[in-house]
From TrEMBL:
Full protein name: Lipoprotein LpqJ
PROSITE patterns: PROKAR_LIPOPROTEIN (PS51257)
Residue ranges with Low complexity bias: 35-61
Region spans: Disordered: 24-68
Taxonomic source organism: Mycolicibacterium hodleri
Amino acid sequence: MDVRWKVMGVLAAGTLLVGCQSTISGSPERNAGNPTEPTFPTSTPSRSSPTPTTTTTTTPIAAPPPVAEALPPQNGYVFITTKSGQTRCQINTTEVACEAPFTSSPTVDGAPANGVRVTADGQLKWVLGNLGDIPVVPIDYRTYTAQGWTIVATEDGTKFTNDGTSHGMSVAIGGVDAF
């Protein structure tokens, strides 16, 4: 029985080798523009069945925009604290007010301002005060929405943009910028 298997294996290998040969009929002709390359006749595709073409390009795929988490209001306000715990803010439909130990705030009534607020139309004002014992929601470095504002929190600071006016402010311990 062992001999039969060997014979069948040799026959199968021979059959495979014969099937792998290919011959192209015809004779090569010299191309006058390039004497070293032969030319072959090509057929023209019929108009009734167009030949599909495939083009491969490498295009970088942009990451989808981050999905914003909606923060629900309490009595018309959303209260947040940043991941660092150094900044607390209250957000309503008309303004955002934040309190933090700012390192370069202006002097207000003889003391360094510890608060800042921005209105929906981009008016920024430094203030003295304390937000008190507000029921804050801790936020992470992500994107959020609250009361018509988009909040983008990163390690470098927190940006508040009014969805209707595109005005707002970027808040960090080292400074605040209105836009």
